Amino acid sequence: MAAAGSGDRVILLHGLARTPRSMGRMARALQAAGYDVVNHGYPSRRHDIATLTAGLRGFLESLPDISGRTHIVGHSLGGLLVRAALARPLPGLAVGRVVLVGVPNRGARVIDRLLGHPLTRMIPALFGRPAAALGRDAPWLAALPPQPSPETGVIAGTGRFHPVNPAAWVNLLHGAREPGDGTVERDSAMLPGAADAIAVDAAHSFLPSDRRVIAAVLRFLRDGRF
Predict the structure, then answer these.
(1) What is the pTM of this model?
(2) Which helix (H) or strand (E) element contains residue 189?
(3) Rounded to the nearest 5°, which phi and psi values hold at 195?
(4) SS3 of 9, please?
(5) Distance between CA 118 and CA 199 in Å, rounded?
(6) Residue-level pLDDT, tens digit, the chain, 226 residues
């Protein structure tokens, strides 16, 4: 693991309708490993994808200079915003490794299922403005560069059902059988060209706090491999 004072920084980005608290356990583990951790919060429900991406770019551009590299770990929507923000170079920011945790790189079929039924079309809006743009194979997702960094690691979840995950109930009621974390299908979480990828048997919302996921993030930041 990184030694204290190594000079490397890690930015953490939570998912849709979550807060930095959802990344708290990971933040503490990274700090204990010697990283300078910034657990960044953003108004995930309030703005559309373009506005959130611009906000993230502005935040990254405002970071103070450090002697080491800046790594980024994004969960779910947070990972998509990382990919979008890094689609164009950020002069002056030495981006290191990127870890995408439960990220719907091709979108999520649960959004299509909700939007496709007249009784549930309004439900995605309850999750926030970006939700309706996260359907499977949405054009803006297909237009993103295949990876935001030369060293990108992907962690997919395979805990298909958890009772506190609303998306898992929707998929269950629709008879969905795709492997995934209850919200994001495994093949959507995967990203062609990634340096490495693993699957962890955990549900979508709980991936950032899962000890196996945290250990994998630490390994990838250290070695570029899981």
Answers:
(1) 0.90
(2) helix 186-189
(3) -65, -35
(4) strand
(5) 34
(6) 444 447 899 999 999 989 999 999 999 999 999 999 999 999 998 999 999 999 999 999 999 999 999 999 999 999 999 999 999 999 889 999 999 999 999 999 888 887 777 656 666 666 778 888 999 999 999 999 887 777 999 999 997 656 666 666 566 665 667 878 888 999 999 999 899 999 999 999 999 999 999 999 999 999 999 9
Write out the H or E segment, with its range, that includes residue 112. Answer: helix 109-115
Task: Report the DSSP beta bridge partners of residue 99.
Answer: 73, 153
With a CB cutoff of 8 Å and minimum separation 6, the contacts of 101 are 73, 74, 75, 76, 79, 155, 207, 208, 213, 217
What are the strands of the beta sheet with 95-101, ordered from one edge?
Answer: 36-40, 9-13, 70-75, 95-101, 152-157, 196-200
The CA–CA distances, whole Å, from 145 to 60, 74, 78, 194 equal 19, 16, 16, 12
Which is nearest to 74 in space by CA: 171, 154, 142, 151? 154
Residue 92 region, left (φ>0) first, then alpha (ψ -120 to 50), else beta?
left
The owner of tokens 């490794």 is 97
